[in-house]
Design goal:
binds pyridoxal-5'-phosphate; 42% helix; three-stranded antiparallel β-sheet; 16 helices
Length: 464
C-alpha cells in the first residue's frame, strides 16, 4: 500500500495503532486441537530455536500489509529487486534438469564459482567448491562438520549463533573491532580462546562477515590480518561469510579476504541472494581451505549435504553458473543495485544522524545499525522503553515500522541499537523496482522519497 504521506505523522494519534502485543510472532499453527495432550516428542524441554527473527519480522509486516495497514519495512534483509531476465530465462530453459546430480554441485557450477574467486585473487580449483541450497545451509553444514564451539563477532548475523546452538555447540560472542563490523577483536578473541581452553571446551573456529550484517561495515585489511594471526595462535578455522562482497559501495575500499592471509584455515561462502537478489532460489557456494584442511572439511560437508539436501536444485545451479561467469549484463546489474543500495542506505543513515542518533556510515550492502542510546532517558520517560525489544515494539505498534533489536545479533537486551535494512523500500512492483535500479537519483522517486520522509517523521515524532 502506498504511503498516506508525511501528514499522517504530524498527528500520531491518527495513525492506525494495531493491537498486536508482540512485534515478531512466529507463525504458530492455530488449529491444534486443545483437547489432546501434546505428543511427548513435542513436549517442553526439546531443544529448539525460534523462527529466525528476521524472517519472522518479515512475515509480521507482510500480514500487516495484507490487512491494508501502512508499513515501513526496515526489518528484513532482502535485496528487494527483480531477478535479472537473463537468469530467469536460463532457469526456465533448464527446468527439465530433473536429476539429483552430484552432491557437491555440478562441474559447470563449481568451475564457474572457481572462476569467480580466482578473478578476485583467490586461485580456486573447482574441486575445492561445494554448492548447496543457499549459503545459510552451507554454513550450517560447515558448523556441523566442524563440531566445535565457535567465536562470532558481537554483533553478528542472527543465524550464526542459532545455527551453532542447533548443531549442539556453543557460540561465543566476542566484541568486534571498535569502528569495524563483522570481525572479532584479536585480543578479545585470544582471551575467549584461553578461557574456553581452560574450561575444557576449546573454541575451534571463528566467523567473519565481510562486509557485515548488521552494521553495514567492512573490516579493514589490518583487522583481517590481526584476526588471522589470532586464528593461527589459537589454531582456529576461519569461516568468512562474503555474501555481500560485491556490494561494497566505494570500489576504492580495500577488501582483504582472510582466505588470502590464512588460506590453509579459511573457508569462504557466498551466494546470489544479495548481489543478484535471488535469495528465494536457494543457491550458495563454499570454497574449502587450501592444503590438508580442504579435503578434510569437504568430506565432512559432503557427508552432511548428502544426508540433508542431496544436491542443490539442478536448474538453479545452471542459472547460478551463468551468474558466477559474470557476463557484462549481470555485472552491470550488480553495479546498478550497489548504487541503489548505497543511495538509499546512506540516506537512511543521514536521517538517523540528523535526528541525533549515533550511527556508523554504511559502507556496503543494505544495512545500518543506529544506536538510540542518546534518547534513552526520553524513550524511557515517554514510552517506558527499557530494552531494544521495547523499542522495536514501539516502532512497530505506533508507527508500523519494522526493525530488529541488537539483541537478535548478540547484543545485550538493554542495548538500544537496531538493525535497519533498506532493501524493501525500492518499490511495491517490479516496475517500480526496475525504475529504482535505473534512476540516476533514486531518492527522487516518489515512493522512495516518501519512505525516507516518513522515516524522518517517525524519528522526529518519537523524539518530540
Ligand atoms: C551475513 C549473511 N550470510 C548469509 C545469509 C543467507 O544467505 P543465503 O540466502 O545464501 O542462505 C544472509 C542473509 O540475510 C546474511 O545476511
Amino acid at each position: 500500500m502506498p504511503w498516506a504521506g508525511p501528514a499522517t505523522l504530524t498527528e500520531p494519534t491518527t495513525l492506525p495503532l494495531p493491537k498486536i502485543k508482540s512485534p515478531v510472532r512466529s507463525a504458530a499453527p492455530s488449529t491444534r486441537p486443545s483437547s489432546r495432550p501434546l505428543p511427548a516428542a513435542l513436549a517442553a524441554g526439546t531443544a529448539i530455536v525460534p523462527v529466525s527473527a528476521t524472517l519472522a519480522a518479515n512475515e509480521e509486516l507482510a500480514a500487516r500489509r495484507r490487512r491494508g495497514e501502512p508499513v515501513l519495512a526496515l526489518a528484513f534483509g532482502e535485496a528487494g529487486l527483480p531477478v535479472h531476465p537473463r537468469l530467469a530465462a536460463e532457469l526456465a530453459a533448464t527446468a527439465g534438469f530433473g536429476a539429483y546430480g552430484p552432491v557437491a554441485g555440478s562441474q559447470r557450477l563449481r568451475a564457474a564459482a572457481a572462476g569467480y574467486w580466482s578473478r578476485r585473487g583467490l586461485q580456486t580449483d573447482p574441486d575445492a567448491v561445494v554448492a548447496g541450497p543457499g549459503s545459510k545451509a552451507l554454513l550450517f553444514g560447515v558448523l556441523l562438520g566442524l563440531g566445535t564451539d565457535i567465536a562470532v563477532p558481537k554483533p553478528s548475523w542472527a543465524s550464526y549463533a542459532a545455527q551453532a546452538t542447533l548443531t549442539g555447540v556453543l557460540p561465543h560472542f566476542v566484541r568486534s573491532v571498535p569502528g569495524e563490523g563483522g570481525i572479532c577483536d584479536a585480543a578479545a578473541l585470544d582471551a575467549a580462546c584461553r578461557a574456553s581452553r581452560a574450561a575444557g571446551r576449546p573454541i575451534g573456529a571463528v566467523l567473519v562477515t565481510m562486509p557485515d550484517n548488521p552494521t553495514g561495515r567492512l573490516a579493514s585489511p589490518a583487522a583481517v590480518r590481526d584476526l588471522c594471526a589470532a586464528a593461527e595462535r589459537n589454531d582456529l578455522i576461519i569461516i568468512s561469510d562474503e555474501i555481500y562482497r560485491d556490494l561494497v559501495y566505494d570500489p576504492a575500499t580495500p577488501f582483504l579476504s582472510p582466505a588470502a592471509v590464512a588460506p590453509h584455515r579459511t573457508v569462504v561462502t557466498t551466494a546470489l541472494s544479495k548481489n543478484l537478489a535471488a535469495g528465494g532460489w536457494r543457491i550458495g557456494v563454499a570454497r574449502m581451505p587450501d592444503g590438508a584442511a580442504g579435503p578434510a572439511l569437504r568430506r565432512r560437508l559432503l557427508g552432511i549435504a548428502s544426508e540433508i539436501w542431496s544436491a542443490p536444485a539442478g536448474p538453479v545451479q545452471q542459472a547460478a553458473a551463468v551468474a558466477f561467469d559474470e557476463p557484462a549484463d549481470l555485472t552491470d546489474r550488480i553495479t546498478q543495485s550497489r548504487s541503489l543500495h548505497a543511495a538509499v542506505c546512506q540516506s537512511a543513515a543521514r536521517v538517523c544522524a540528523a535526528a541525533g542518533l549515533s550511527v556508523a556510515r554504511p559502507q556496503a550492502a543494505l544495512y545500518l545499525y543506529p544506536d538510540f542510546e542518546p534518547w534513552r532517558a526520553h524513550l524511557h520517560g515517554k514510552y517506558g522503553v527499557q530494552t531494544g525489544a521495547d523499542l522495536v515494539e514501539l516502532l512497530l505498534n505506533r508507527y508500523g515500522t519494522g526493525t530488529l533489536p541488537g539483541s537478535a545479533f548478540g547484543e545485550s537486551a538493554s542495548a538500544l541499537r537496531l538493525r535497519l535494512a533498506t532493501g524493501l523500500l525500492y518499490g511495491d512492483t517490479d516496475d517500480q523496482r526496475e525504475q529504482a535500479l535505473a534512476a540516476p537519483d533514486p531518492l527522487q522517486l516518489p515512493w522512495i522519497n516518501d519512505a525516507m520522509t516518513r522515516f524522518g517523521d517517525v524519528l522526529a515524532d518519537m523524539a518530540a
